[in-house]
Design goal:
311 residues, alpha/beta, four-stranded antiparallel β-sheet, 21% strand
């Protein structure tokens, strides 16, 4: 499902003293099949934008199409759209509510797939739970509140993917997790993306997460898209990102320090690529001393070297 937004505008509390314009003409195209990142500081409009994609926020200005769904059309089949565009909010484990994990995951099917038989629903629930690497027999009859933090998040994600959406949107999917937990969640998302979910969109403040996982990304600021492209292209504009009040990946910070010392690394800003280029430079030069006055440069010659290859 190709996503095309043109001149998207949205105002909270319109015609009131508290009116706040969150989107001010946002233009963005997300192609089917991408693992797409959305970046922006608090209040930049990024969360408002993604909530438009499955009509949690209804279109009020501009145009938006998601696959064959025109969200400006009052006859648009919004319920059908929401079954195909899944949304996982930040800290989704706080949205668990049912008596058992199985009933919690089943909830989406009851809303969106009313024509399914009970046998088909049970099969879909089991598949969703196993997809997020939980043991179905172990957790199905347990209260979701008895699970560990990581298990709760996986159960919440299962409740969204149970309808097998073609587009999966996640707001800060790894927020609050330790490094291992973050790695496991991102591996899970890549597994889902490599399976039946064609497009994954993550909203994240973690620039390392964007650099390591996304094929393309967009930067939101003051309600507009101000940058878009491959993460490597975006993070080469580190001065602009910092001016917007955004962070940059650790690899980009290291590259800036090295450049100040006359050493330029041509990298895609994934850890594997950055380290390999630094080691290659060190091997060629026999070590780089402070006395060096020229610019040492290591070219990014790997034509296949994309963000996803670091996984």
């Amino acid at each position: 499902m190709r996503i095309v937004a043109k001149d998207l505008t949205y105002t909270y509390n319109p015609k009131s003293p508290f009116a706040t314009q969150a989107l001010k003409g946002a233009d963005l195209v997300i192609e089917e099949g991408e693992f797409f990142g959305i970046i922006g500081h608090t209040g930049s409009g990024k969360s408002t934008f993604v909530q438009h994609l499955n009509a949690l926020i209804r279109l009020t200005g501009g145009s938006l199409t998601v696959g064959d769904y025109d969200l400006s059309d009052k006859k648009c089949k919004f319920l059908e759209l929401r079954s195909k565009v899944g949304m996982v909010f930040q800290y989704p484990e706080y949205q668990l509510f049912a008596e058992t994990v199985e009933k919690d995951v089943m909830f989406g099917l009851k809303n969106f797939c009313k024509d399914m038989s009970e046998e088909e629903k049970q099969k879909a629930v089991r598949e969703a739970i196993e997809t997020v690497d939980l043991d179905y027999e172990d957790v199905k009859d347990r209260s979701p509140f008895e699970l560990s933090g990581g298990q709760k998040r996986r159960a919440a994600i299962a409740g969204v993917i149970v309808t097998k959406p073609e587009v999966l949107i996640l707001d800060e999917p790894a927020a609050g997790l330790d490094p291992l937990g973050k790695q496991e969640i991102m591996q899970l998302l890549h597994s889902i993306h490599g399976g039946w979910c064609k497009t994954v969109i993550i909203v994240s403040h973690d620039m390392d997460e964007i650099a390591e996982n996304c094929t393309r990304a967009a930067v939101f600021s003051e309600g507009k898209v101000v940058m878009e492209g491959a993460p490597a292209e975006i993070f080469r504009r580190s001065d602009e990102l910092i001016a917007l009040g955004l962070d940059i990946p650790v690899t980009a910070k290291c590259a800036r320090i090295l450049k100040e010392r006359g050493i330029e690394i041509d990298t895609d800003f994934t850890c594997d690529d950055f380290i390999s280029k630094v080691l290659a430079l060190y091997a060629r030069s026999g070590g780089v001393s402070k006395a060096d006055t020229g610019v040492a440069r290591v070219e990014n010659t790997d034509a296949q070297g994309g963000a996803g290859d670091a996984q």
